[in-house]
Amino acid sequence: MNLSLVIITLNEEDSIERCIGSVPFADEIIVVDSGSTDSTAALAEKCGAKVLFHEFQDFSTQKQWAIEQASSRWVLSLDADEYLNDELADEISSILKIETPHTGFSLPFRIQYMGRLMRFGPWSGERHVRLFRNGHAVFPNSGVHEGLKMSEGTAGNLRKGHVIHRSYSSLRNQMDKMLQYSSLWAEAELVKGRRSGPFQIIFRPAWRLLSAYLFRGGFIEGIPGLVSSIVSAYYVFLKWTILYELRCDQ
Fold first, then answer.
1. What is the tens place of the pLDDT at every residue in 25-57?
2. Among residues 25, 98, 146, 207, which is most buried (max CB within 10 A)?
3. Domains in the chain: ranges and CATH
């Protein structure tokens, strides 16, 4: 087999079919579920996926366990709320048919936000390694904001098309996720001995807003660009404030 598509899920019935359907050339589809109470598992099986259960500890551990279940030569790791557009799907399909010196590839990402496929703003230029030769990449234990790292060889860049990421169903959903992720980040940084103070709480969010809206062109995206820039800065504020609070409670 040439390609395994690997996805971790928890209550993703609204997006799992779209994610799987965007990679029709996958020889193997592995969905690792951590206890969905909706129809995620049934829909994934309907799409031809092998659904496995694994108790959730953290994102890095879950994704690492998931890719270890793949048996194809190449592995594509996607989140359930992500999918390939046609242009990127064609490029990946072509890559799988040729010999390449790279053992992995980073893919360009575009965020679907408030009904707009964002090109500019806080997520402009986003790309991540998601396609790799089986056994040549790992998800290091990072708790939150997990990312693949090449363990062998080098990663090239795919430039045609993009992964579309529908990360938030609503502004409220985004706020809930930010509170969860900022708390996880602060707890991990506390263990590392990292400190927070007035500089981090005031100036880091201010720089994030300035960078996202002006330097990264968020103003070009209209209201979604403005909102995403402000909310992105608020996320930075949450991270450093929660870290400060945790250290004060020690």
1. 999 999 999 999 999 999 999 999 999 999 998
2. 146
3. 3-165 (3.90.550.10), 171-248 (no CATH)
